[in-house]
Amino acid sequence: MRVSKICGFLLSAFLTVGFVACGETVSSTDASANGGLDAVPGYHPGKVYSSENSSSSEEISSFSVDFSESNIQVDESGVAVITEEYLDDVASGKAAEIDNSWDLLENQGEDVEGFVGSRSLKFTVDDLDFARGHYYCLTESQEWFEITKGKLQESKLPFLWDGPAYEARAGFTLYFANVCESVYIAAE
Q1: How far apart are CA 158 and CA 128, in angstroms?
Q2: Which residues have C-beta within 8 Å of that of residue 20, sequence separation ≥ 6?
Q3: What is the pTM for the complete model shown?
Q4: Which residues of 76-111 are buried (b: 16+ CB within 10 A; e: fewer)?
Q5: Which terminal residue of the chain has fewer beta carbons within 10 Å of its beta carbon, N or C?
Q6: Residue 11 clears pLDDT 80, i.e. is over it
Q7: What one-character-per-residue DSSP string does 18-33 give?
Q8: Do 84 and 145 touch, CB atoms closer than 8 A?
């Protein structure tokens, strides 16, 4: 009988200490008020988290850039639609060479060293690395044009190389779909 009284006393003491210890970490009123979520690491009710959306920062950039001198309009999302007048003609000898590479790649399924098709018709300024390659535009009528730095700069888009808004270039895209059916890159 003595053993059962001692065990009962120890059990009650243990449970009392356990409840007191738990009461120090999460009170019953805090836990019941929000479903016990105060105990979840990283959850802070009432805290506002700000998440910066890249598209909103791009829109802010496009509104703060002066396009009054530009020959191309830029929409509210920062897209500049490139027209044929800002692409270079390709000489007939070079066009025949590109046609051959294109035919091997697209019609015969062969890999052509240093010649690849782009998966996009939208490019940022930083996507165009003219030191490492040439960018060729294939039109729907199977004509070739070259996308060049000099010809694009004639558009007077202020976010292009050496332009007054060059630092804001990440918020803008050059869109070639009005002229090009596809774009191919030939290594330098």
Answers
A1: 16
A2: none
A3: 0.66
A4: eebebebeeebbbebeeeebeebeebbeebeeeeee
A5: N
A6: no
A7: HHHHHHHHS-HHHHHH
A8: yes
